[in-house]
Amino acid sequence: MSIEIEFDSSWQDDFLHRIDEDGPWGNWELYKLSIEVEKHLVIPEFEGLQAPKHLPHLTPLPHQLETAKQVIENMNGKAILADEVGLGKTIEAGLILKEYMIRGLVKKVLILVPASLVTQWGQELNSKFFIPAVTQKKSYVWEQCDVVVSSIDTAKRTPHRDLIYQQDYDLIIIDEAHKLKNNKTKNYEFVQNLKKKFCLLLTATPIQNRVEEIFNLVSLLKPGHLGSETSFYEKYKRDSRSLNDNEHLKELVNKVMIRNRRADTGIEWTKRHVKTIPIEFSKAERELYEAICQLKNEGDWLQANAFSVMTLQREACSSREAVFYTLKNMLQRKENPSQTFQQQIEYLIAMVEAVQQNSKAEKVLELIRNINDKVIIFTEYRATQLFLQWYLKQNGITSVPFRGGFKRGKKDWMRELFQKHAQVLIATEAGGEGINLQFCHHIINFDLPWNPMKLEQRIGRIHRLGQENDVKIYNFAIKNTVEEHILKLLYEKIDLFERVIGELDDILTKLEFGNIEDHLIDIFSGSSSEGEMRIKMENLSSMIEFAENLRKGDSHAAAGNS
Amino acid sequence: MQQQEIHNFLLQYFEANDCPILENKPGYLTVQLTIELDKELMNRPFYWHYLEKTGGTPNPMQLTLITNQKEAPDSLKGEIIHFGSPRLHQIFASSKKLARYIRLYENHQQQQRQTALLPWLCLNVKISYQCDRKRDEFKSIGLQLINGAMVEDFHDRLLKIPLTPKIPDYSFTLSPLVKPKSGMLRIEKFLKSEILKEDHSWAEEAKQRWEKDLRLLDHFYEDIEEENESYETEKKALQDQYEPKINISFLNGGLFYLTEKAI
After folding, report:
1. Under an 8 A CB cutoff, do B9 and A192 touch?
2. The complex's ipTM?
């Protein structure tokens, strides 16, 4: 067969010139040394990993090494790395990148990660892998630096976008790639148009996705691997969740995806201790909550604002500030509010003002004082976050806020402040993703998210590789409210908190009924009575139990066959 | 490379570049850099620029390199060097850059007789076989510029011969019949013909992988009729990923004048 053989002859003129000019000639010792060096640097085999030899201070885990080898030798450098949370996908990506760089197959690298992780990626590549990665700060970086880490939101904007398209990247790494599941978004389009010679997509939650999302993710990596759009949807329903039931599709996906499970790695994990802390409303708080519940019975609200009522209910369990903020917004947003509407809101605001204490916050204060160590408090609401910060300060406890909306530098700064100077970090939901806080092992869930995966991500911030202590999780729930229902009927029944990392998404995939959060909203807003709601919740948790048993059955069957 | 080998390599590198070795103990060494090597390694162009402008006294840095943390004293400040450390690779690159071309004579012992020295052209190259994976091979080829004899592993043979940069007494060099330029061409041709004789199933397999992915790509875009930019990008990406290539890159080389029986 014909293969192009390129002979580098750029040096010849230089050499001939020296022959004509009689020098200058090199030193024999150095000449010999450089050949010796070259003999060490030559890699005589296609197979095998060189990177570990270059990284004496890093001890990769067996599954990480195996993954790197798989990606390079069997997947041709294009893969979705989908390990369960906390198994070190960054290490795997770093190993692969390092290997390619050592072998001279990769020079120009683009790494797109959430803004909050840019600095961390840069630091890890430099300190753990000796890869001179640069975090993007100025637009000249795209051209002048070989390995650049940036957030996708920066990268897709002009002038960066055009500069990036002009570069010839050898490897593209995208962290939290599950955000690219929708092919109609700007981010998706941006990544699709990048030239991807080698490409790694990192995600922790690929199989909870619908088949459509899997198709989009895989097509980004390797277009055509799952067929064309038309042919794919002829075979599989767009919103089907039947990935696990369709062996053929599963097999195809597994050709481009590696998913290590915690259970298979044999790593010792610290334990999770979960404690539910039931709290009684004060009289005024209870009155506010009841007043909000009453809204449901007024026809006007039920049709247009079922969702708002529920939001308010949940907020009332968090803080009066959160309720107030939403009420104010509702009033402002409504065009030509009717007299009744206005009165209704004003009545509620008056109720809010009557509330003088926050029972949960009082409990938090007591708890933090007892723990006497670093604590992370999660809340869903900005207003609650601000209130808690103020409240703790009043009581002499230092805290730092953390939000998804923070710029990268601010996030790093807050993390640093928390680690070195503050006792408490108060994070809103968006802060739950993309920051690692292993140095802390207490979490207070001030209020509970309705999507169990979100909760898993919260816990995943501290319960990951590198955590040396058992993790303590405190769940706050107000008695006789939606919150308690959720906690009792959903989370406790399915043992969510005690579960090992990653089991949950397995279970949720087994259920082919869509997003849990949608179901909960439906149950709470659609139920006409407490009784109906209870029955529906029972149903939901039985479904989850059923799915779990199915799963257990699967593994028994598998064990039996082998 | 073992840590001891790295230690020895560093020592040789600094000695070959005339840097005084201030300390050479188990586990570490400290060297006084020369001005040239400070400029080469320390990356402080502004300092040197400033110094040249102001005419100050140059003060090249000292460098302490720790090759074994267990043996070096705990209090010692220095750079820890291991096979993956950027400093070592910088020095690797520097040693290659500083000695690309050479000319040497055999330091033979026949001092009383007039001795003819035959010219040899030596090229040391790295051959890289690349598709979505890569492997390399080091080759050293010598070509006698009188009779055109071609010798492999030439460098290893040279290591057994005493060599000197100055022509020894009572010696004279024979003029090459083969000009160095055409000598280079002969070596190039020789390398290429040798390579073509090898087994290239790796390249066949890469092409198969390439074609397979290309078929998938075509299928993916078959619904879309008009010219599609991302299709072209993807196609190019597959070519970059899989296309088998062989690169012969030059490491170093030179002219060697050797006695008739030397090789």
Report:
1. no
2. 0.91
